[in-house]
Amino acid sequence: MLSDLDFVVSVEQDARNLVFITPWERTQHEGAIRFPDSRHFIVEAGDQWEPIGFVILQGCRNPNRSVELKRIVLQTPGRGLGRACVRMLKQLAFRDLAAHRFWLDVKSLNARALRLYASEGFVEEGRLRESVRVGTGETAGWESLVVMSLLDREYQARADAGLETAFSGYGA
Ligand SMILES: CC(C)(COP(=O)(O)OP(=O)(O)OC[C@H]1O[C@@H](n2cnc3c(N)ncnc32)[C@H](O)[C@@H]1OP(=O)(O)O)[C@@H](O)C(=O)NCCC(=O)NCCS
User: Fold this and answer.
1) What HEC string does 60-100 produce?
2) Distance from C-alpha of 141 to C-alpha of 47, rounded to nearest angstrom
3) Partner of 69 for a Cys bridge, out of 17, 49, 104, 136, CB 3.0 to 4.6 A?
């Protein structure tokens, strides 16, 4: 909801997260909440279901049934909540949105996210070489994006193998 955006922007602007993402203007978040092609979620966890992060999906009405995990940012990394979240998002994409392809891009230096996506079945499609400008002034440089995807039949094979059971996270 629009009333969640102070929280969303504060998590997104956290220096620990900024290095891994390209932050949006608040108006872009407002657009994603309103635009039917997008889904903008708050992630809640713990006994009191406190907000601990957010997720944005795009392409939810894409005629090619290619749904994008546009952004996932969690405040408390390393508790298994990212895995729990990605698993729920796959179910949402393939079961509820009837996706054929669920895809994302991730900065090549984001080892944690790369490892998480690969271990959740996402396959590397290729790299957008030096496609993101990073740093400023004399320290500015380029970073590459890794494009990864999971197809519906690959998801089904994982589900049949028991690899898609609900995962609650270690500290959830
Ligand atoms: C990426 C993110 C969503 C992952 O969520 P998380 O809750 O931290 O991830 P999990 O605790 O579920 O751990 C996922 C895997 O990453 C591994 N991992 C943790 N830190 C790591 C590191 N520094 N290098 C490599 N792998 C790492 C974990 O060991 C785990 O794998 P395992 O279960 O095989 O051990 C979260 O860290 C985050 O929001 N980061 C900042 C924003 C960001 O990078 N978003 C993604 C942009 S594409």
Assistant:
1) CCCCCCEEEEEEEEECCCCCCHHHHHHHHHHHHHHHHCCCC
2) 43
3) 104
- Domains in the chain (CATH in brackets) are 2-160 (3.40.630.30)
107-159 per-position pLDDT tens digit:
999 999 999 999 999 999 999 999 999 988 988 999 999 999 999 999 999 99
**Which residue, 32, 28, 164, is CA-closest to 102?**
164
Please report, as a single letter, which amino acid is at residue 70.
Answer: K
CA distance 151 to 146: 17
Can you tell me which atom of ligand 1 is nearest the CA of 81?
7
Q: Are strands 123-134 and 101-107 parallel, antiparallel or unpaired?
A: unpaired
75 C-alpha vs ligand 1 centroid, how far in Å?
11
